[in-house]
User: Fold these one by one.
Assistant:
Number 1:
Amino acid sequence: MKIGVLTSGGDAPAMNAAIRAVTRVGINRCCQVFGIYGGFQGILDEEIHELTSRSVSRILHRGGTFLTTGRSEEFKTEEGLNKAARILLEHNFDALIAIGGDGTMRGLDALSRHWDGKLIGLPGTIDNDLFGTDYTIGFDTAVNNALDALDKIRDTAEAFSRTFLVEVMGRHAGFIAFHVGVSTGASAILMPETTTTMDELAEKVLNAKKRAKTSVLVVVAEGDELGNADTIGKALSECIGEKCRVSVLGYIQRGGNPTHFDRLLATRLGAYAIECLTRGEHGGLVGEVNGQLIMTPFEETWTKKKPIDQWLLGLLDDLSS
Ligand code: F6P
């Protein structure tokens, strides 16, 4: 079997671990594995190179993606999809494994209507916003990166008894904000999955101060409906009569050595993708739900929504009291 592997969309720590598992397990199951560089655009530009077990040496511990990534506009068009299908056919590919987020799953779904080969998606995004897997590859590392930064911000916040708003990534999802917020003891977490008004936020912060808290942290998901941390920080400063400090963590969340959890998840999912292909199973996202490796049809990965833990959500005020 001739298999192509690519990474697409935002890079995520441990994408490399997934590529390594796909390559080595694939080769040891008598497959030929080809790396496609630069995401879906790499198919159109024919940036296709055979991988050996040695090609994926020394990448297990590295963030980013050695195949490089991209967000191709050309690939989304009818012409682009037809061209990609023609190139995959000309290269005699039997299967394609793409590692990425919801945009990547949409890309695979669209390609399935143009190409007869076997398609499998692996969940690689720090946002954790794919249905069909409890966790996406890279999420745990991003949360730990943000947590490390928040612990440092807590030190300086305590030294001055200050209020800080810290913006984390996640695009339209609040998983990073929620996990980081709970783990750092934030007084409030603003995220797209919940609605918090400015008055409610001000009340939470003032209550924390009344309870003699020496510092107040508010975690803001970049996709929150109230706006970005800067805008919210200015409005909150007015409401509570104290200048709030704002810190936007940005891209440092996406880089760095992947955690043990992400390396293991990526390795399991990469190897499972090959097992699925050799069994003749394809056409969906490979993920882990309740410890079981499963496949979910591409479309469900973005049409169905993975909920934030409602029980823990209900405990936030107790935990930060
Ligand atoms: O989807 C991953 C992600 O890092 C989001 O959290 C963020 O909103 C987005 O990508 C940033 O995209 P770009 O790398 O194109 O700036």
Number 2:
Amino acid sequence: MTEIPSEHPRHDSLVTRHRIEEGVERGITSRQGLIAQGRGEAFDYLLGERTLESADEAARAAAAHLLLARHSVLSVNGNVAALCPEELVDLAEATGADLEINLFNRTDERVEAIADHLRDHGAREVKGVRADARIPGLSHERAKVDADGIYDADAVLVPLEDGDRAEALGAMGKTEIVIDLNPLSRSAQVAAVPIVDNVVRAVPNVARHARELRTHSREELAVIVDAFDPEAALDAAERAIRAGVSDD
Ligand code: ATP
Ligand code: MG
């Protein structure tokens, strides 16, 4: 990877871009993933490439949900696998969640490449290879999930999920946590917990909250979950983007 001087004003953004490029070269990220990245960068620019207070609260609520769940799963696509594999593995460890590869453009080669990549970054078990169950209401390839993974889960974290699938997962009664830089995206709008933040910041932030909340009682976690207002979080993010000033 090309060296980017750390004092470069666009350092983090350039590193992120290189990771996605490398992901495409290694068969982890699809070419459409490049377009999604471009859209995300535009929103991140408008947010000032920082975690809003409202996004931090969402990350905390997400951590509480993951800890309370009977079975939580972190859905992994080609973009997040390229951007923050180590952080995903760490979040799975911090919350006891499973990692499951779940691709919009599914090919066996890409699933294998991502599974290898996650294992290289410390993952022990990676689900999503079997794909022996279907999400109702979606066309064949896009519906595939693991019977003992996302299909069974009661809480799912879906970073950068497409709107249709986010809706279908919600319809199955799962608690859905979405990480998406666009507060107007349908995926963010249907989520129980929308985290409007870059995955490279949000994933480690949820892990940090989870470690802090691990000693809390189920009652205390339930209070955090109940106090979270998804509409207010989306409004705060949209206001910050439109006004170009700090949120709440
Ligand atoms: P819908 O509106 O139905 O949800 P969409 O048009 O948003 O669909 P895509 O274009 O695939 O679907 O969306 C990709 C989404 O991922 C965009 O909303 C973009 O902001 C977001 N995104 C891209 N990169 C990142 C990132 N690094 N972190 C967080 N979100 C990201
Ligand atoms: Mg979307």
